[in-house]
Amino acid sequence: MSLNNVKEGDAFLCTVTRIESVAVFVNIDELNTEGTIVYSEISAGRIRNIREFVSVGKKIVCKILRKKDSHIELSLRRVTASERDGIMDKYKKERILSSILKPILKETTSEIVEKIKKENDIPEIIDNLRSNPQSLKEYLTPSQMDILKKQLSEKKEKEKEVKRKISLKSDSESGITDIKSILDTNEADISYLGSSHFLITVKAKEYKQANSQLEKIIASIKEKSKAHKAQLEIK
C-alpha cells in the first residue's frame, strides 16, 4: 500500500524506534515511513511508566489518526482487540511461513513470501498447510515441493497458543479477593506480570478454537469486573 492510499482509521503493524518525553516514534512497517504517538494516545489512563506499554523494537498495532503531508499521527489505545489480534496473527503467520520456507528457498525466501502475501491469505495457508501443501505449488519447483511435504510430515503437531494482556485493578477493601474471583477459570493459564497486569494464555489444536475460547474468557472477565466495580483494560 502506498502512503497516498492511507486513510484515517486504517490500522497497521508498527515497530517502535524511539521513545521521547512526550511522544513515541514508530516505523509503519507496510509503508516504511515514520509515525508518532503522543502519550495520551498510548493509553486512556495515566501513564506512570511508558515502558509498561512500549519499548524500542516492540511490534505494536496502531491506528491512523491524522495524515498531513508526510507526517502521520497514530493511536495505540484506539485500536480494537479484533483489529490488533487480526494484524498480529497475520504477522506471526508470515514469520512462520518464512521459517518453513527458508531451508528450502534460502536467499529468495523474502521475495517469495512477499509474492505469496500479495496473492493469498497467509493465515489461511498456515492453518491448512499440513493438510494442503499444494497451496504453495505455484511458488515452488517440484523438487522443492517434495522437500516441503517431507518437512511437514516430519514436523510434530503442536498446540496453538494465543495470549492477551489485561490490566485489572480494584479500589475495594476486598480488592485482592475480587480480582482472584474475576480471574478464576480452568480454561486458561493466567499469570501475574506486576503492576496490576496479567497475561491470559489459551492453548488449543487450532488457532480459531483458541481465539474463540480466549474471547469467551475475556467476555466473562468483563462481566465479573463490572459486577465487582473493578477497573479493567484489555491490552
Overall spatial form: flat
How far do the termini sit from each other?
27 Å
Number of domains: 3
In CATH, the architecture of the largest domain is: 2-Layer Sandwich
Estimated radius of gyration: 21 Å
Structural class: alpha+beta
Number of strand elements: 9
Q: Would you identify the regions where 5 or more consecutive residues have pLDDT less than 50?
A: none
The helix fraction, in percent, is: 25-40%
Mean pLDDT across every amino acid position: 90
Widest sheet, order of strands = 1-2-3-5-4
Main beta sheet strand tally, sense and closure: 5 strands, mixed, barrel
Q: How would you characterize the overall build of this protein?
A:
The protein has 235 residues and is of the alpha+beta class. The protein has three domains: 9-79, Beta Barrel (OB fold (Dihydrolipoamide Acetyltransferase, E2P)), CATH 2.40.50; 82-154; 160-234, EIF_2_alpha (Alpha-Beta Plaits), CATH 3.30.70. It has six helices and nine strands, in the order E-E-E-E-E-H-H-H-H-E-H-E-E-H-E. It has helices at residues 81-105, 109-119, 122-128, 142-154, 175-182, 207-227; strands at residues 11-19, 23-28, 33-38, 59-68, 71-75, 160-169, 189-194, 197-204, 231-234. Helix 1 (81-105) packs across helix 4 and helix 5 (175-182) packs antiparallel against helix 6. It is flat. The model has no long low-confidence stretch (mean pLDDT 90).
Q: What topology emerges from the helices and strands here?
A:
Elements: E1 11-19, E2 23-28, E3 33-38, E4 59-68, E5 71-75, H1 81-105, H2 109-119, H3 122-128, H4 142-154, E6 160-169, H5 175-182, E7 189-194, E8 197-204, H6 207-227, E9 231-234
Parallel strand pairs: 3-5
Antiparallel strand pairs: 1-2, 1-4, 2-3, 4-5, 6-8, 6-9, 7-8
Helix pairs in contact: 1-2, 1-4, 5-6
